[in-house]
Structures are given as C-alpha cells and as structure tokens.
Write the structure tokens for this entry.
Amino acid sequence: MASGSVDITYRGVFQKILAGNIVKTLVKASRHSGKIGGTISRYSDSPERNGIPAKQFAVIAESQDELHVEMAKYEPDNIRLIAALDDTLAKGHESWAWYGIRPIHLGLREGGALLVVSEHERAKLLEFIPRLPFEWRLAILPGEKSFSGLWVYHDDGTEFRVLGAIARLIPEVVGLEELEKEVGKGPKAEQHLDWLRQGYREVQVGTVPAGVGAPNTYEPVKLPEWTEMAEAIIVPAAPRGGRQEAFKKFTTRSERPVIDFDVCTQCKQCFVECPDSVFELTPEGYYNPEYEACCGCGICAEVCPVDDCIVMVDELAFADNRDLYEEWKADRAAYRQFFQGLLERERVTARSSRRKVSA
Amino acid sequence: MAMTEVSRRFAQHEELITGTEAVAQALRLADVDVMAGYPIRPYDSVMSSVAKMIANGQMDADFIVAESEHSQFEIVKHASATGARVFVGSSGVGWMYAMEAIVVTAALRLPVVALVGNRALDDPGAFGVEHNDALMVRDSGWLLYWVAEGQEALDATLLAYRVAEDARVSLPCALSMDGAFLTHSQHLVLVPEKDLVEAFLPPYDLKKRRFHPDNPISIAPQYNEDWVMETRKQSDAAMRRARGVIAEAYAELKRLTGRGDPDPFVETYRVEDADYVLIGMGTVAMPIKVAVDQLREEGKRVGFLRIKWFRPFPDEELRRLLHGRKGVGVVDRDYSYGSTRHGGAVYNEVRSALYDLEDRPPVIGFIAGLGGREVSVDDVFQIEAKLEQAAAGDLGAESAHWIGVRGPVE
C-alpha cells in the first residue's frame, strides 16, 4: 500500500465534470482501505475557458501529515499517475501565465504512469511526448476523447473506464476492489461496474525506457526577483501591428483549421469572426491563419460558407505550426494531395460531414 | 493685497481663503492637466474653486465631471497613466464608493493626488469630520497626509505632487482636511507665484511606464501567485523610500518659501521638556495648542505633537520624541470598534511604534470630536487630566476614553 497523487489533465470546461468525478471517486475509494485524501482543482485554471488545459488532482495519503503537506499546494507533488483525458494534450500544455509549454508528464516520478485516452498508437504519441532521463510507463486507454461535460454531463463510460485503468496502473494507491466498492454504491451500478472492469482490462501498458521519445526542449522558467521585474504591474504589450510574443495559447487546441485555398472565395468571414484575430491578409487576398495564435475554437470553420474549405483537423496530425498557405502557393498540386490525405486519413470535422449527419 | 518678500527670488501674496481654495491655488500653480470631480460635501468646494479659475482663464486643465465617485477615480487613474498630472478628491462614503479604483491606483503606482474632505461615514447621514474615511486606505500604498491649516493646505498640495511623482516613490497621495474647520473656514494664506512652483516641482515624467501607442505596454494584467508577492514588495520598497524623498522635498520647499516645521513628518509644540504629550491629526491642533499654553501657565509641562504624515508613519520621530515621557495621550477623531483597548487607529499605531522603547511611556487613547463635534479647550483639559491619572495608574482599565459624549463613557 502506498500514498500518492493522481493528476488528471483535461480540456477546460468540456471535461471539468469528468475530471472532477474521477478525482472524487479515487479519494472516496481509497477510504475503503483506510486511507485519507482530498482533491485539488488547480486554482489558476478557474474560471475555465473552452479547451484550455486544466488540472485536477486526487491526493491519497496514509497520514494527516502526508495529506496536509500536499493540500497546501496548487499542484501536489508525489505524482504517481497522470491521466490525459484528451490525447492532443500529449503535445504539452501552457498554464495560464508565462511559463512556456510544459510537457504532459511534467512532475511524473520514476516508474510513474502516463495514461492517455486515445485512438492512436503508442508510437504516434511518442512522436510528441518528450523523453525522460528515467524509465516510465505509457498506458493507452483506447477511446475517443469525451467532451461530455459542457452543458449537461453525458455519462458515456469514460469516467469509469479511466478509473479502471488507474486501478490497473497504481493498485498500490487505489485498487480495483476499493473502486468496485465505491462505484457499486452509486446509481446505475451494474453499468458503471462493467465500464470500470472494461477499463481495467483494456488499458494497454508498456514501459518507456530512459531517453525514448521526442526531444525534450522544456526548460523551467526562472522567475525574476522583485528588483528585476518591471515596476508598477506593467508587462510588454503586443507591438502595433504585431502579436503578443510572451503568451501563445495554441495548446488550447485539440483541432486546427486547415484551409483548401483552391476553393476559398476570399469572402472574409473567417477573418471577421475569428475572436483571436488569427488571420493575416496575404498579398493575394487570402486569409492565412497564424497557428501560434489560434486556440482551435472552430468558429472560422462554422462561418465558412464553402463546403470543405475550412476543415478542423485532429491536432496530432501536425508536428508544428508551419505556414500552410506558403506550401499551397509553392506547389498547389502537392497541397491538393496533402489536403485530400487529411480528409481521408485524419479525424476531421467539416461542413460537408456535418451536412451528411443532419440530412 | 500685501506683497511679502520671503526669499530673495520669490514673491508671495497674502489671501484670505478656505482650505479647499488654498488647494485649488496649488493646483493652478502646479499646472494640473486633468481633474475629475463628483460633488460631495465637504471636499466639493475645491471643484467650484477650480472650475472658476478655468472659466476665468487663470488655469488650463481638463475638468471632467464624472457620473459617480468610482468613475471619477478611474478617470484620473487612466489619465495619470498617460502622463497627465491629475487631481481628484471625495469625502466620506463617496471615497468609499470609489474604493476599488482607489486601491488599484496605489497598486499601479500612479501618482494621483487626492483631497479627502474628511467626513463621517454614513449612517447616519452626517457631514461632520471623522478620519475613518481616509484611514480606510491606510494599508493600500497611498501616502497619507493630514493638514491642519490653510497655509499648510497649499504647501502640502505642492509637496504631495513632488513626492508622489518622484520616480523613487511613484505612489498616490491623499491629503486629508477636516470637514468644516478647514474646508469651509477662511485662513490667511501666502500664495506664491508660479516661478517658485516651477523651481520646486519638476515636470511629471513616467518615462517607460507611459501608456502610449508608441510605447506598447499592458498595465494591470491578471497574474498569479508566482508574481503578486514581488509586486507587493516593490510597493513596500517604494513606501520605504518615500521617507527620504519627503525629507528632501520638504527641505527644498522650506528653503523656497521660507516657512515650515523643523521636522517634515510631525509638528511639535512645546514638546521638548514636556512630561505629558498629546497627539492628534488635523484641526484638533488648534484647541490642543491653546490648552497647552494655558496648562503651561499653570506650571504643567505639557506638549503637543501633530502627526502630519500618517503614511509613511513617523515611528522614528515618535520614538525619538516620546521616550521617557510620563504619559502620551492620543486623540483620535476616528473609531476602530473592537480594536486593542477599544482605541482609535492612531492610538494603536502610536502605541505599537513605542513598544520597542525600553523607557516607553504609558499611552492612553482618547476618542473625541466624532461626527464633527467640536473639540473645545475644556475638552483638552479633561483629556490632559485623565492622561495624568491614567499614566499614574489611577484609572483602572486602560480602555480608550470617550471625550464629549453624552452619558456613561465606558
């Protein structure tokens, strides 16, 4: 038996209730083996904005002292497991202040587990997850990300499947038996227990040796002393005609807009409606998104009047924020192939597909 | 109008004006750029004084009448960030209503100068003086000054701009003036010419902090626990530096005008050999000084110390001037219900400042003059008598004494 913290990293608002239910059930389940605990909702994430990376934690302890040392923190230490409820978070996430992009497994201890809800393979995820200097475990719970919690919580099984996977990964902190006792008390117990056991069975676990994964470019931010900071609560602003360099929020994105410039009519709707002024006017009269500024809200794709012109594509289809307009200009035939490839192979939300559904 | 040569270079002329008119004269001389107003007694007489000078062509400033005190303070805060020298003010619950704008002005280190015409907080609806309104910001980073007479109103306003705008300080400054006794009474005041003020007060220059399209900065972003404490420390450092800047500016003002107290932070009256020292802020100085003179004639060694700067608090001066006395009596024109010994805000600050002294005197609290009730010379005799008794341990519990209230006082 052991104590430890579980970090649930999720997309703000969409998965807030999901994450909250998971951490709460973990702590209550641990009571069945006589442990104590509490949960922490990372304060700086509140109020949550659409899609913004956010965290909730379950702290499970064997003594009051162990619990108190973690509960006075914004993010507890002794992380045994990190669960990413949306696999695009594997690309890392910005917290709300100026800390740069943090790797998804920041804070994970040696031998700890990163659990990702994903339809992708391990190799695909490791293209994005940075290497660590020690061995750790990557676990994949097969499934689509659940964005069920925006208005009404939709009980689609993700909550219990994730709990089952956690029991499989860190049984010394909270085991399947305790979770069964806890979940079995609730309404729809039979269905929920099925899902719990399904998650326990289906999760795929493998170790990741030290040094395996994407290059690790993360450097902790050195916070300035008060004598080094600008006085009077002033920070540099976006220069006239420029963009704010200090804070980019593209890790908010689980999909990005990709434009078929061959069919674009230059109607300007995307430019007008974009809440983040992402689109730059090109000399040829097109509107080219600056991906570093785009949080993937999808409004441009919604307002675009042309079928399959602006489509929203799974963020894991891209390794970087490169300028696709320049690629289109350089070689239209190659771009056509690339765009068709996206439509065929990737998770895509497009106007044409929405029509098919509603028809 | 008599022309009085005070220094070789600078002429000053005498006028009979109210405390708020004296402030208005200082605003004209300081060439204030933006003033925001919203009427509330007693501060509001400065509004009409300034408006009249602008209408007469004696002063060139933007005078914005806001729709509430909150907007009024927001207007000057923003104007100050763009590099405008500003003036604002309020009284009582008007000052309270603007509180959100008032505290951020200090946090943003904007050198707004404000006049607080001290007035009792509602309820009941009353407009006599109490100091609780201005004291509400005592912990927020405002420089706080209590004025006692018309001449000082003019001089302290000039001093306020110089200290507040000094890059080493850059904090807002509130000048407190007792409603009625100073805001609505005319005093003989020497008004300098502009050349004196130009020699004293450098132009307001925010440099890299100026909010302007050519200098792209964001002021007051939201930030979290990793940054806030450092900004608080910066404000703390600025307030600590204010002491030196005040001393420097006060010495210069004295040199140019030929008047002023020996100490920049406190006024002392017959304190040197005093056994008992009374302390107060604002116009209560008048009856106390009279009483001190009369008690001296009876052979009692009594003195008076007036706190001018409440922030920064003159604890060094108090320790230096009060150690070894037989008793110190603090006359608070404010209340702090449920505080230590039920004393006022000034009492508790003074008592705390003296705690480190080995030969610390007994400090006795007096609550007087609330809601604008007159504090008479007889009241001061009563205060002095109780101070002697209390200092000798003859009064039992050392709870603050209410002076001039009808009915039982404990």
Q: What stands out?
A: The CA atoms of residues 107 and 231 of chain B lie 8 Å apart. Residues 1-5 of chain B have pLDDT under 50 and may be disordered.
